[in-house]
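Hi everyone,

Forwarding the result from last night's run.
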Amino acid sequence: MTPVLDLRREARRDPLEIPGLDAIPAEERAAALANWRERMVSEHASARVFAALIPRLMAAGVARRHVAAVSAMIGQELDHAVLCARVVVALGGEAKLPLPPLTAVPAHEDAGPLEGLLRDVISVSCCSETVAVALVATEREQAGTASLRGVLGKILADEVKHARFGWRLLDEVGPTLDARTRARLSAYLVAVFEHQIAFHSPFLRLPSASDRAVSLGAPDGPSNWRVFVDTITGVTIPGLERHGLDAERAFRRATSAVLAA
């Protein structure tokens, strides 16, 4: 049986109002609704990623505050799914969707506890969550109503914490890494960037959306792709380079690999 994410009850507890929907063409409302439905599922599924970090944090022997911070992030991702469900209902949709197969979090059996943890933290916080901060911040600026800005503002506040967690942990443990570990992490970055490019490349196939559709949360493909590239090249790569990781070279290799596929 396919598992189902059903957030209808949670969405009804605190209904969201989006004024002016009647003036938005049906196809533009539909584009926004599809995006919010997809986001509802992805936010819910993201909780498992942070849950998988807990035993790795403990195995690596990092400070208790880091374990506590990530524990809180699990609940925050689940809360984001409910926020998205409220928007789905406000746009006329049903906050009930099948859950897609959940991909396994890499086991990193070829790495020690700290190196395995840093692989995940770089991928999740320094890449995915850092890009999410930029994307959600852009969406909040473009949101057409106070209610949507409020939802996106709550999500953004948590995404900032999720991104900063990784950078702070890297600041803390980065100076202790030996040259061999830095070289291994640099090599692993190719796979990290390949995943990021593959995950965001669907933006390239999306058309530009109208301002009205974007104001409701419909994605604008070309704009979102630019935000992704600008964030990776302007924030993530320089940040990793400061810690002695060869991120720029890894991104070039990842880009070449994806384009050649």
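The first helix runs from residue 8 to 13.

Cheers,
N.
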